[in-house]
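Appendix B. Worked example

We walk through a single record from start to finish. Start with the input: the chain for Iron complex outermembrane recepter protein, Sphingobium xenophagum, length 707.
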Amino acid sequence: MKVTCSTRLRLSSAMLAALCLTQAARAQAPETDGETSWTASTIIVTGERGHYATPTSSSATRTDTPLIQVPQSVQVITSALLQEQDRRTLGEALVNVSGVTPTRSEENLFIPPILRGFPAEVYVDGLPIFAGNQQAYDPTSLVGVDRIDVLKGPIATLYGGGLGTPLGGIINVVTERPSDKAQAYVALRAGSFSTWNPYGDVSVPLASGIAARLAGEYQSNASWIDRIKGRRWSIQPSLSFQIDADTDLLLQAQFNHRSNLEYSGLPADAALADMLDRNAFPGSPIGQPRTKNDNSMATATLRHAVSDTVKLTVTGRYYDSKVDESGSFVFPGLAPTGTTSPIYDVFPITMINRTKEATFDANLGAKIDLLGGTHELLVGVNYDWTSFYSGMGLFVSDSPSGTIDLSDPEYDLSYTPQTPVNSYTDDRFETFAFYVQDQASYGRLHLTGGLRVTALKFIENSNFGVANDKRYTHVSPRAGATFDVAPGIALFAGYATAFRAPFGFIGMDTPRPETSSNVEGGLKLALPKAGLSGTIAAFRQTHDNVVTADPANVGFYIQSGRQRARGIEVDLVWEPSPAFSLLANYAYSDTRDDGVAPGDRLARVPRNSGRVAARYRLLDGPAKGLSFGAGITAFTARELTLPNSIAVPGYAVIDAQAAYDVGRFSLGLSVVNLGGRRAWDPHSYMGYPVVSPNQPRSAFVTLKAHM
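Next comes the structure step. The output line below is what the pipeline stores for this chain.
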């Protein structure tokens, strides 16, 4: 017999499938003749639920595995959460995960997000985007994103790219596939700071087994920071082919553009002493071109079921990026002109970056019964070729462009392009890797083990024209286990490592590969009847051969030794009914440096941080279709420098949202920093301690129409 599902409201295919499976499980009858009998039933859905939790993820193991069986802390940001909280950038979304320090979109290039105190990398659909580009840290658009998987700690067994494997963890942005049913929406978002943001997503079947999707958006906006204006757009076409019952092919592309007047931050000491105009632009805006970031990528994914238990997945991508950077900044003491706060010298900088990356991954998965248990084996190979050129033109004498009074700025300085470049990095990387993984289950015990062998070669690399050809071979193990204490409750423990060649290292010594290792354990919850899911974890992570700024030589680096982080993280989602969702996270992060500043805390990482956010939806009555939510995010103080010399005080901000759905239309309102809290965020530019003003109270309205 079969299960039929009908719905009175529009539901996503994933949501409908989950409802069908739940009802089918409840209707399961005793087995007869070795087959399961199913009772036909009809599900009537009276409200559309915004899910903040998901039971499975393929990012952590490259197999569809229940999160409760993954011996690692993994958090998933669903599309429903992104939409209901009106998250438009990756940094905005990541506040919903504990232990993350996101990258702000206006920050300088090469500033990665931080997971558990260490640099993380952003992947798209399981493949890397070279870590030397801002796009990798702050994707241009979240339109067309199905979910964001955050894998905490090194996970070198399955992932790697042109420089090795991610040291601090992976933020995997998973995009939506074309649908075999026609669906579309268009939306317009507008609000504070002259924000104008149309976007949309269309998916249509073209023929039997063939479907196309097109997602895209455009945004223009000003800023609470003087003189800053930005523009960005993204176009994301995709095409899927169901070749036969066992084989499908997905072709995807992205074309992205971002441009804005580059912001270099305010001197931290004077800003925190309230000596400066908090919204001042610290540079020479007259004639300063916008920094432009243009990139494109094409991805192909082939999946083939060799049999019911053996599956092949082959994925390849080509990525091309051009960044033309024009900046101006203040750096007290860089030129001895005798200025004192709040009057500063202004220096110009020009940088061009060119990146090309080709990456390929193929793996074969098989499910077998062996040694008294069930095993899911995965064997794969990975290849990555990356070309990266960066040319920088910095002021060529001790004479700055002029001075600016940041307590009362006049903005009368003209920008002078610094060309030709007077320093450059020209790198080629080639990586070969082989990996193997086994997921074994013995009743309530689930074991995961893996190994990756990586061979990394620097090809014709040079910094300042000095050759830096190197070869590295590294073995990265991973091991872990989960134990089902009770249905929906499991204990877990895991160990993993990673290694990475220093990127853009300019120093007096030959660079050594950076390595990291992570040990963690804790409790996982997956209780659908109670609507409760999440992870409570304790961890200890170390990072060796750390690259830090050379305090004796501006613009140069040294490898300082070891850093470590340890702490406790809590990520919980409670959804007791379709009407209510509650998300809560908390992180205690104890970080220490054992190199240039023994005992000091790592920069930009708060000791305590957390967030609580709730959403309530009216599913019946005259106000049916109305929903509203609010959240509060808090940080304690964050250090700006290593060695520690100055810290940014902690703060808390409130956000709020409301929406009203009527038929095919919805109207949404979101407010950032509802209480108007004035605070500072740590920033990084040219190695000097600077801060940025947090976003003031801002409001945005969105009108969306489903086709």
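Two observations about the output. The longest helix spans residues 13-26. Residues 1-48 have pLDDT under 50 and may be disordered.
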